[in-house]
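stage 2 :: seqdesign
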C-alpha cells in the first residue's frame, strides 16, 4: 500500500527543511474493509544534515490468527535544500527473509543499486526520487500544489512514476482527532491501476493522517492515524 501512496510527496513544491520537526513518532491502525488487520509504528529522527526512518507493520486482529508477521521499512540519507535525499533503503519480513530488499542510491551517477533474492541490478535513478517510506516524511518539507503532478518512487527494486491531483481540503476525523487536511487522489489511466488517496494535516507539517488504497482485485486498505508526536 505505502509503495503507491507514499509517492505523493513529490506532488509538493520545495519548502525550508529547517522548519520541520527533528523527531516524529506516529502510530496508525490498518483496516481492510473496516476490519482491523494491523498496526503501524513509525519513527523519524533528524540529526544535523542526516535522517533515519523506521516503519514497522504488525499483524493484528483476524489477520494475526492466520498470518502473524511483520514488515519493517527503513530509510536513511541526507537532508538538503529540497528536503530528504535517501541513500539507503531496506525492507524486511519478520518470517520470510527471502523477500528482503536492500537498495543504495548513487546520486552522483544517477543509479539505484538493488539487491533482492540473491540478485544485484542497477536501475536508473531520476532526480528527487524518494523511497517507499521517505516519501511520507518528505511531505513535511513541502508546500501544497494544485494540478496534476508526475512523481518518481523507488521500492528498492524499481522506480515508478505516478500522477496525483489535489481534489479538496476537508476537515476529517481520525482516532487521533480532527484535522484540516489537503486531500490528494491518484490519477489512473486504466482499470488495472490501483486507486489511492491521502489526507495531509495542514497544521501538523502536512503529515499523512489518513490513507486509502483500493486494489482492482477488491482489496481496500485504510491507514488511520492513532497517535502523533512531533518535536
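stage 2 :: out
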Amino acid at each position: 500500500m505505502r509503495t503507491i501512496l507514499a509517492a505523493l510527496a513529490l506532488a509538493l513544491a520545495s519548502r525550508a527543511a529547517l522548519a520541520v520537526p527533528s523527531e516524529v513518532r506516529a502510530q496508525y491502525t490498518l483496516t481492510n474493509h473496516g476490519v482491523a488487520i494491523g498496526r503501524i509504528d513509525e519513527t523519524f529522527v533528524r540529526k544535523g544534515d542526516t535522517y533515519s526512518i523506521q516503519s514497522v507493520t504488525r499483524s493484528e486482529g483476524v489477520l494475526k490468527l492466520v498470518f502473524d508477521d511483520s514488515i519493517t521499512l527503513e530509510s536513511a540519507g541526507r537532508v538538503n535544500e529540497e528536503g530528504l535525499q535517501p541513500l539507503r533503503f531496506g525492507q524486511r519480513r519478520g518470517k520470510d527473509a527471502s523477500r528482503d530488499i536492500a537498495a543504495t542510491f548513487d546520486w552522483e551517477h544517477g543509479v539505484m543499486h538493488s539487491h533482492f533474492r540473491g540478485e544485484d541490478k542497477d536501475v536508473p535513478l531520476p532526480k528527487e526520487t524518494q523511497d517507499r517510506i521517505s516519501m511520507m516524511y518528505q511531505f513535511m518539507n513541502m508546500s501544497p500544489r494544485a494540478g496534476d503532478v508526475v512523481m518518481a518512487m523507488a521500492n528498492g527494486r524499481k522506480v515508478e512514476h505516478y500522477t496525483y491531483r489535489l481534489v479538496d481540503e476537508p476537515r476529517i476525523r481520525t482516532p487521533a482527532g480532527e484535522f484540516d487536511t489537503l486531500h490528494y487522489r491518484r490519477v489512473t489511466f486504466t482499470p488495472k491501476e490501483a486507486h489511492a488517496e491521502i489526507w495531509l494535516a495542514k497544521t501538523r507539517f502536512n503529515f499523512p493522517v489518513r490513507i486509502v488504497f483500493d486494489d482492482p482485485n477488491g482489496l481496500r486498505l485504510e491507514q488511520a492515524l492513532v497517535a502523533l508526536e512531533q518535536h
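stage 3 :: structure notes
- Residues 61-66 form the longest helix (6 residues).
- The chain has one domain: 2-230.
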